[in-house]
Amino acid sequence: MRDLKEIREEINEIDEKLIELFKRRMECAKDVGNYKKANNIPILNQDRENEILDDVLVRGGEYGYAAQLLFSNIMELSRALQHNIVGSGKEMKELIENSSPNIPYNKNTKVACQGIAGANNHEATLKIFPDCEPQFCKSFKDVFMAIENGEADYGVLPVENSTAGSVSDVYDLILKHRFYIIKSLDLPIHYYLASIPQANLEDIEEVWSHPQALAQCSDKITANNYKTLQSANTAVAARDVANSKRINLAAVCNGSAVKEYGLKVLAENYENRSDNTTRFIVISKKLYIPENAEKISLCFGLPHVTGTLYSVLCRFSSLGLNLTKIESRTMANKPFEYLFYLDFTGNVKNDEVTKLLCALSTELPEFSFLGNYEEDFA
Amino acid sequence: MRDLKEIREEINEIDEKLIELFKRRMECAKDVGNYKKANNIPILNQDRENEILDDVLVRGGEYGYAAQLLFSNIMELSRALQHNIVGSGKEMKELIENSSPNIPYNKNTKVACQGIAGANNHEATLKIFPDCEPQFCKSFKDVFMAIENGEADYGVLPVENSTAGSVSDVYDLILKHRFYIIKSLDLPIHYYLASIPQANLEDIEEVWSHPQALAQCSDKITANNYKTLQSANTAVAARDVANSKRINLAAVCNGSAVKEYGLKVLAENYENRSDNTTRFIVISKKLYIPENAEKISLCFGLPHVTGTLYSVLCRFSSLGLNLTKIESRTMANKPFEYLFYLDFTGNVKNDEVTKLLCALSTELPEFSFLGNYEEDFA
């Protein structure tokens, strides 16, 4: 058996040669890019790539699959270079260049949110637009319609860890309407146990709230052996408890709902976990990209092929961009099988980031740039 | 400018050398593995890897980041080889070897599900366990408690595209209880517009259902200009409409709820999209891995570092394993910042798959094998 030092010396020698060859191959990729630009030839040549991968599999012997993986990365990186040379994704570039950095806002700005007064959506809306008079909509869909029809300038919607719906519902609507995300807010959600003013803690026998809020407060509810009843949302629970006039009832709701429906606080921080937060986004018909924007959201389709997601992530990874969220969703009856929602840190002022977006907008089916925005934490 | 043919000849020549060097480097990795096995040295040497990556960045020049990416993959593949040689992940291996292929079931088997009779969960439970008498639980948590306490043998829970909760809620509970997924079912969800027997379609003015079901049926609801009221779930809406005795009301609910509450069908396939399905899983305290299992579910933590997810996916991709689902979630107050839920196609009878699971169980924080199971489609 060889000594570790001896093996590592051989590895170092191999690595030196590998790097030089890789650099030479990237130079060749540039030459190919220039040739394709001059002759107006598309960047992707799937037949040529498949030919190389087939050859690599055979030559790689027992390491065939691993070698294929390496070469699919090399070709991915080559294509990225070539897209930059050719200047792919002109539409994407124009979209970014024509965006405005300042989000207009004054007390006449109309902001739509789903639910009723006192819902978490209402609270988030007032945090982001403190002077506005929110327009309450029945559904997420109605929020989008209000913006589409010009009845609202912006909409505020929950996208993560919310009792009101899933990320994909909201993202689907953003894609359908071709709207943009222009801001996000992470809001801590604290629940109160609240009753009509005449009631006291020892009177309570039954608790009303949204099923997810009941679940988030299950420790104390179980410890007190309360009966529970499910409501459509936490503000509705608060309103219904207020209207019931019953002293043995309490709602699990937020502080705005307590105020809105004149309830009495019986207990604070009723949630099991004190770090409970919900992410809200602001949507807009027009694209705004603030100077300090730090998060980019994308959506794209991928075929059901081994390694395709991996190949796309290669592009982000090679630029040192941090993914902060990824979510896949199966699509039925589509030319691609998966839809991906992806967030990463970055700003389009960084030329490399814009080049990446331009290249991906050319290469990926159903590619959508959802926005580049600031993240706030309340 | 060089001709394309000429450039490709140089590329082919480079590729030949690259493959040979890569094979030599993998042979070296094997030698390192054997040395580490003999001397009981841990596989991962982060300092050595960082040293190599720093060096590669400098040597790579304008391709420094791309070269780093390539080398992080090479080291990832080397580590995979070394883990196989050392035989990492003994616990994981034993867990798989001690699992049983046959899921015991007869008419006395006790199956828990959340909700009330007529809910989609009930329908899914009867599809999977046709002869069982389902035990209805108030919450997902109660389903887990019933299994934990031995009151139920299995639980049936929705995990995707459901009105009842999110994937991560269910997965969190699976992890907390250390249960396993032993089966999945994709069930098409069709909604009915249903009323009390005395009502007719032209009488209807108001529709009750869960907010998500209302959204899924919004086309026809909007077209008819119906008022809507949100219920805690679709079966509750059906029950409440039945109890109301009002002829101007209808519920949006499934076929079981129609039967359960003696409603009259006013319209079928009320949903906007005919391909609406929900995925259900069966959970169990004991691990069963059927012979024909085709899907593997995992969960693991990752630090907030560029490319870590990419590196892990490299391992799957190098074995040609198809990812079918990926979802990230931010963790607060944890030694890692992200938790990933991942599904891929495979069976532990494939030795390469078991080796991968054993290696990942050693390398990744909070690694959990959630199950290897058959997928059914109703």
Q: How would you sum up this structure, described in words?
A:
The structure is a homodimer of 378-residue chains. The first copy, chain A, has helices at 4-39, 46-59, 64-86, 90-97, 120-128, 140-148, 167-177, 211-216, 218-223, 234-244, 255-260, 308-317, 351-363, and strands at residues 111-114, 135-137, 154-160, 180-188, 192-195, 206-209, 227-230, 249-253, 264-267, 277-284, 295-302, 323-330, 338-345, 368-377. With 378 residues, the first copy, chain A, is an alpha/beta fold. Chain A has four domains: 1-86, Up-down Bundle (Chorismate Mutase Domain, subunit A), CATH 1.20.59.10; 89-102 and 292-378, Alpha-Beta Plaits (2-Layer Sandwich), CATH 3.30.70; 111-189 and 277-284, D-Maltodextrin-Binding Protein, domain 2, CATH 3.40.190; 192-267, D-Maltodextrin-Binding Protein, domain 2. In chain A, β1 (111-114), α5 (120-128) and β2 (135-137) form a beta-alpha-beta unit. The N and C termini of chain A lie far apart (60 Å). The interface between A and B is large, with 88 and 89 residues.
Total strands of chain A: 14
Instruction: Give the overall shape of chain A.
Output: elongated
Number of helices of chain A: 13
Determine the CATH topology of the largest domain in chain A.
Answer: Alpha-Beta Plaits
